[in-house]
Amino acid sequence: MNDTYDIRGAESHIEVHKFRAGAIIGTLLLVLFLQAFLPLYVPKAEILDLPLLITVYFGLSRRNPSTGLLLGMAIGLAQDSLSGPTVPLGLYGIAKTLIGYLASSIGARLDTEHPAARFALTAVFFTAHQGLVNLTRRILLGQPEPWFNMHLLIGALVNALVAVFFFMLLDRLRKS
Amino acid sequence: MVALPSRHRSLILLAGVVLLQVLLLAVQIKRDSQGRLIRVWTVGAVSPFQRAGTYGVDRVRGTWRHYFALQNTTRDNEELRRENDALKLQITQLESKAAEADRLALLLNFRKLHMDVPMLGARVIGASAGTATETIDIDRGERDGIKRNMGVITPDGVVGKVIEAYPNTSQVLLLTDKDSGVGAMLADSRVQSPVGGTGEPLLYMKYVPNDDSVDNGQRVVTSGMDRIFPRDLPVGTIVDIKPGNPFKQIRVRPAANLERLEEVIVLLTLHPLELRTESEAASPQTPVASKTDKATAAKP
Questions:
Q1: Does B56 fall in a domain?
Q2: Chain B residues with beta carbon closer than 8 angstroms to that of A27
Q3: Looking at the domain assignment, is residue A8 inside a domain?
Q4: Which of A52, A73, A81 best tests the B interface by mutation, with the highest count of B CBs <10 A?
């Protein structure tokens, strides 16, 4: 099997990337560990949503909506599990399922390799993700939250900036 | 049979997966079920890395403190010797003040009144995996005698309560979480009101009528009414008061540094903590279990 291949014909040159064996599972475990570990020593790191970043990254890279949404679901449910019983299973799961689907759908139509595109897309996906979490809380759990605050804006920008460098690191996991 | 286009297949899969999770949410709300099996698997998979990470960071810190940070020791020693004489004088003064401070220390008072409350020291090995909740993970679990709803404190004050106990680790809901709360009262006037979290660093004191006199800087302590924490443990200090309708809007800074927790103490009892008088407390008691004698403390 080819490591990369054109999914839209020779004109668009949109490639689907494959990863080294175990790269996705290894990255997922590492990211979940870092998400729960970093804030202990750097409290401000709480603003990062690393599980969301890898959902977006693998969605944009794999460009297969089915894979993207299933990966998003797995990451989201794992994050729900680690967030304690006050967070019901499915809260992050639903949001990341949809983000995984959207990321891989957009990845199949646009070239998302440029850092500027990655920055913009991550900021949009972060905002959409928080919106979906709030929507789920509001409709299914009866826990209304404000739709917008400064924390959300800062979170979107910080996560987008981190994503640009984080994605460059993850690019090294691709099969050459 | 007509084959579905790929785009439609993924849409159907998306709808199915989202619907399944919505049903999962609904089941949890309806039955108050927490999907414990999935959580146990996930926590079991991640907690070894958390333990290893905490151990690694501690080792690196230790190496730094005991070796690299000593490179300037000679120069520092000369400066320290000069300061030493001045400090000796200050120490003498401070020792006399320390005796007075001991009488006032709330932690000491707590220990005197609750010598029979078994406690267990635990190390913090993780924090919440998302922004929707304020929790920490500790390296002690059911095998150490920890159960849900046990109180968690530090020498500075209340931290929160255990919301889930796994075999080797536990999750603690911090006071700052939106769903958290503790029975509290003003230390001076003894006006009672629960204190809860808002998801932000400051706590919120909920039901103090506008008629009651409250000042910034007043201490808030536990009232014991929640039957989790004994009375008079420090909760925090009032930092902001605004009139509200019908209750004042009071913001409280937590006494314990909840953003930088490294070690905590778990109160190993689910029985309401009875208050005893000073005279009772003065009589001989069972020793308090500490983190150094965990095995003893773990026994009910």
A1: no
A2: none
A3: no
A4: A81
Instruction: Say if B298 falls within a structural domain.
Output: yes
B264, β-bridge pairs: B122
Contact B50 A33 (CB under 8 A): yes
Cβ-count burial A77-105 (b if 16+ within 10 Å, e if not):
bbbbbbbbbbbbbbbbbbbbbbbbbbbbb
Answer yes or no: do A81 and B42 touch at CB < 8 A: yes
Query: Count of domains in chain A?
Result: 1
- B98 lies in the same domain as B115: no
CA angle A55, A56, A61 (to 5 degrees): 100
Of B113, B248, B231, B254, nearest to B183 by C-alpha is B231
Task: Tell me, yes or no, whether B169 lies in a domain.
Answer: yes
CATH number, domain with residue B188: 2.40.10.340
C-beta atoms of B163 and A39 within 8 A: no
Is the domain of B148 the same as that of B238? yes
CB-closest option in B18, B50, B54 to A94: B18
CA distances from B210 to B214, B216, B225, B239 (A): 9, 14, 22, 17
Distance from CA of B78 to the nearest CA of A (A): 33
Is A7 part of any domain? no
Contact predicate A174/A125, CB 8 Å? no
User: Could you report the per-residue pLDDT of B138-192, keeping only the tens digit for each?
Assistant: 999 999 999 999 999 987 889 999 998 998 899 999 999 988 889 999 988 888 8
Tally of domains within chain B: 2
Closest residue in chain B to residue A35, using alpha carbons only: B129
Assigned domain for B144 exists: yes
B298/B183 same-domain check: yes
Contact between B13 and A66 using a beta-carbon 8 Å cutoff: yes
Q: What residues make up the domain containing A58?
A: 15-171
- Chain A CB contacts of B21 under 8 Å are 73, 77, 89-90, 93-94, 97
Same domain membership, residue B188 and residue B91: no
- Measured in angstroms, the CA of B30 and the nearest CA of chain A are apart by 11
pLDDT of B94 > 80? The answer is no
Cα–Cα distance measured from residue B226 to residue B109, given in angstroms and rounded to the nearest whole number: 20
Q: What is the pTM of this model?
A: 0.64
Question: Minimum mean pLDDT among A94-108, B4-18, B162-176, B235-249: which range?
Answer: B4-18
CA-angle at B53, arms to B297 and B161, nearest 5°: 40
What type of residue sits at position A98? L
From chain A, the residues in CB contact with B261 under 8 A are 40
- Asked whether residue B88 falls in the same domain as residue B123, the answer is no
User: Distance (Å) from the C-alpha of residue B22 to the closest C-alpha of chain A?
Assistant: 7
